[in-house]
């Protein structure tokens, strides 16, 4: 599904009408010899028209097929930009129809597509925004700005569906603990969001060609190492399959993370100890404090998007980009997020979630000032990369959490919660600003919620039945690889339009001003 959308992006871009710049040869007409210049020009134009005729024919055929699905009916009657006689396809509508004014087949096809995307993406622990945006542009003909705002509603719905499953699931090693590591979320989420704010500003100055190349290289390497980790985990599961099943059937300790020694059959289980009740109280208090911190960050993030503007949303204060008010609000947000992350880190270091005597301690990160600082820097770096390259934080932070030694089940649940935090704040800001169509936002948000809920339930069933934790890691690797194709395809389209506007590739490599 992800690869099909990426290929469709390139196909529709190739069939788009050529601009005035694209049909101009590199050599100007003034450089032609005076004798026979007119005839040479006419001959070149005839040859160009003959070369473009097959492309125009393909465009007409594709346009007729899309009309059958109601693609032409997505635009209002008086604002349609194309007809069957057009040479190309203008994708975006100047004025989009209401969803329930007339439901066309392409609406149903998009709903099915979003259901599958949400099921796959949230099962792997990513938001799916890299595929939602081109899908909204290609399938439903929304303008890029509306597609970006609407994608936040879809991501929010998918994250909510995953949260409904994760919130009622237990930790794979300790049934008394929730699957979502809320203290870890309260620590990493503000750090990742602070990095994303910095990366977004860097994205404005870096050339498209540089960010596109770096993004493809980084995501390709991330996909490779994630898939390799999943393959190794799968091989270990195959070798230890009999032992794992026997341990779980005897209600002893569950399997430990790969790379750690297995407990012997005579090892005592994690029974109640004198300090177990105190540990539970400490854990619950830490959970409540972390939830309060996350809610505070969410409110602050919504206020930032509304007051300062961002992600396409206008500023309620009328603050222009790079104005004193803009930078003051940005700096205030960075300081607030840094303070929240430091506060959560201090709580993790001061109050260990797992007591040293617990048999499940190998599933935890040993928190101390050094490890907390390292994880914070990695989260900030992941946020900078995500913001600089225009991708979601989950696609970078998910593999990073696996490298930290966090269990795949906990990693996907935690990243999904972080995605819910960021996407819901952005969706709320877009909705309040009136940039998101309410009918499409609510309907397709419900579709992605159902898709993510179904996908997470299905994956949980597979884990219980086949004990294949590696499936989560492999799915994440495949999703990153497919997202790389989709992002690369849309980036190539953007680079092509920039080349036509700039006139030369060298001009596109120049740094752009921040403001």
TrEMBL record:
Residues 18-56, 260-281 are annotated as: Disordered. Residues 1-22 form the signal peptide. Its main location: membrane. GO terms for cellular component: Cul4A-RING E3 ubiquitin ligase complex; membrane. It holds the Pfam family TauE. GO terms for biological process: protein ubiquitination. The chain crosses the membrane at residues 108-133, 145-168, 209-227, 286-306, 326-345, 379-401, 413-432, 466-489. Residues 21-49 have a biased composition (Polar residues). Residues 263-280 have a biased composition (Low complexity). It is a multi-pass membrane protein. It is found in: Membrane. The keyword Membrane applies. Keywords: Membrane, Signal, Transmembrane, Transmembrane helix. This is Membrane transporter protein.
């Amino acid at each position: 599904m992800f690869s099909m959308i990426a290929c469709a992006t390139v196909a529709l871009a190739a069939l788009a009408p050529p601009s005035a710049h694209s049909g101009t040869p590199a050599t100007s007409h003034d450089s032609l010899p005076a004798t026979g210049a007119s005839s040479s020009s006419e001959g070149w134009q005839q040859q160009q028209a003959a070369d473009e005729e097959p492309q125009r024919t393909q465009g007409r055929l594709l346009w007729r097929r899309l009309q059958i699905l109601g693609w032409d009916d997505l635009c209002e009657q008086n604002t349609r930009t194309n007809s069957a006689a057009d040479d190309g396809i203008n994708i975006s509508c100047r004025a989009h129809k209401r969803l329930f004014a007339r439901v066309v087949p392409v609406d149903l096809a998009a709903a099915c597509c979003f259901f599958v995307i949400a099921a796959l993406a949230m099962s792997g622990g990513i938001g799916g925004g890299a595929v939602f945006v081109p899908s909204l542009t290609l399938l439903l003909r929304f303008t890029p700005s509306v597609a970006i705002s609407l994608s936040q509603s879809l991501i929010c719905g998918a994250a909510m569906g995953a949260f409904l499953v994760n919130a009622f699931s237990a930790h794979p090693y300790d049934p008394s603990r929730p699957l979502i590591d809320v203290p870890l979320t309260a620590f990493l989420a503000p750090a990742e969001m602070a990095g994303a704010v910095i990366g977004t500003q860097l994205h404005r100055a870096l050339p498209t060609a540089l960010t596109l190349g770096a993004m493809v290289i980084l995501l390709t390497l991330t996909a490779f190492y994630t898939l390799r980790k999943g393959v190794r985990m799968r091989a270990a599961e195959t070798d230890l399959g009999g032992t794992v099943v026997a341990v779980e059937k005897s209600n002893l300790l569950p399997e430990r993370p790969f790379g750690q020694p297995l407990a012997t059959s005579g090892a005592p289980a994690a029974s109640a100890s004198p300090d177990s009740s105190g540990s539970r109280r400490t854990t619950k208090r830490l959970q409540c404090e972390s939830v309060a911190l996350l809610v505070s960050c969410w409110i602050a993030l919504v206020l930032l998007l509304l007051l300062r503007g961002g992600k396409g949303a206008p500023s309620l204060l009328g603050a222009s980009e790079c104005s004193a008010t803009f930078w003051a609000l940005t700096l205030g947000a960075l300081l607030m997020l840094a303070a929240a992350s430091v506060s959560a880190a201090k709580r993790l270091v001061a109050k260990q979630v797992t007591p040293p005597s617990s048999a499940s301690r190998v599933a935890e990160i040993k928190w101390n000032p050094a490890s907390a600082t390292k994880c914070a820097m990695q989260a900030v770096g992941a946020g900078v990369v995500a913001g600089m390259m225009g991708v979601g934080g989950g696609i970078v932070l998910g593999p990073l959490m696996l490298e930290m030694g966090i269990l795949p089940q906990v990693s996907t649940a935690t990243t999904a919660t972080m995605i819910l935090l960021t996407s819901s704040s952005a969706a709320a800001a877009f909705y309040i600003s009136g940039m998101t169509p309410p009918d499409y936002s609510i309907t397709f948000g419900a579709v992605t919620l159902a898709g993510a809920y179904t996908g997470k339930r299905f994956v949980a069933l597979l884990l219980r039945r086949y004990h294949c934790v590696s499936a989560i890691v492999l799915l994440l690797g495949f999703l990153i690889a497919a997202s790389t194709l989709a992002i690369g395809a849309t980036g190539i389209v953007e680079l092509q339009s920039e080349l036509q506007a700039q006139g030369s590739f060298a001009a596109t490599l120049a740094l752009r001003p921040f403001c």
